[in-house]
Write a structure and sequence with these properties.
Helices cover about 25% and strands about 25% of the residues. The chain is built from 7 helices and 11 strands. Helix 1 links the parallel strand 3 and strand 4. The structure holds zinc ion (ZN). Zinc ion binds next to loops.
Length: about 210
């Protein structure tokens, strides 16, 4: 029998337009880039009758991690982010403060470091983690090949790419990461979930994004 695909949901918590992503496996889920307040996330999980088992960040910008450490604490789970982005945790406190969200402490709310490579999540789902620096030093992409999902963060957008003028950003390195994605030859039908804006597919990127080249 063919394995049932994991469902996913794009979530935009107030007060901004960052895409958070939830991958469901039965009554468990994984959360990527949880923006907003942990209270809102607790309500979200309760409404869907699911329990988060891990939190992952594509990178360390505040709009992708604001609720990560607090969700992890409340549910007794780990949150994962590349330690190459550790310096961004407290750098982002200005924005969190502006949006009246709790500030983060890199020391007290430290994430588990991410190791690129193949991981198994939600029982038996394969997840490949790839290092995609350039938007930040520790940018990570998450590929679920059996589900046809690629969570790319701010490395790639619908028809452009993420900014490179913030700490750790480097345009040349970012283009190298995009070339790495092109070289992975993912199926055209793979859904690409960006950190902001609408989902696309690898096929769409090939056709429409002038920066999507090796
Ligand atoms: Zn970002």
């Amino acid at each position: 029998m063919q394995k049932q695909k994991n469902k996913f949901e794009l979530v935009q918590m107030s007060p901004q337009n960052t895409n958070s992503v939830v991958i469901f496996g039965g009554d468990k889920c994984l959360v990527f880039d949880p923006w907003g307040h942990a209270d809102a996330w607790e309500k979200y999980f309760a409404a869907r009758g699911v329990k988060p088992v891990a939190v992952y960040a594509t990178h360390g910008h505040p709009d992708h991690i604001s609720a990560a450490a607090e969700i992890a604490k409340r549910f007794g789970i780990d949150w994962h982010m590349s330690h190459l982005d550790m310096d961004l945790i407290e750098w982002g406190n200005g924005l969190l403060d502006y949006f009246k969200l709790p500030k983060l402490s890199a020391q007290d709310q430290a994430p588990v470091d991410i190791k690129p490579g193949e991981h198994t999540i939600l029982g038996d789902t394969k997840m490949q983690i790839v290092h995609l620096p350039g938007h930040t030093r520790g940018g990570m992409g998450y590929i679920l090949p059996d589900d046809g999902i690629f969570i790319v963060g701010d490395t790639l957008f619908q028809d452009s790419y993420g900014r490179t003028d913030l700490p750790g950003g480097d345009e040349k390195i970012l283009f190298g990461s995009i070339a790495k994605i092109v070289d992975m030859n993912l199926p055209d039908t793979t859904v690409v979930i960006h950190g902001h804006g609408m989902n696309t597919t690898i096929g769409w990127q090939k056709q429409n994004n002038p920066f999507f080249k090796g």
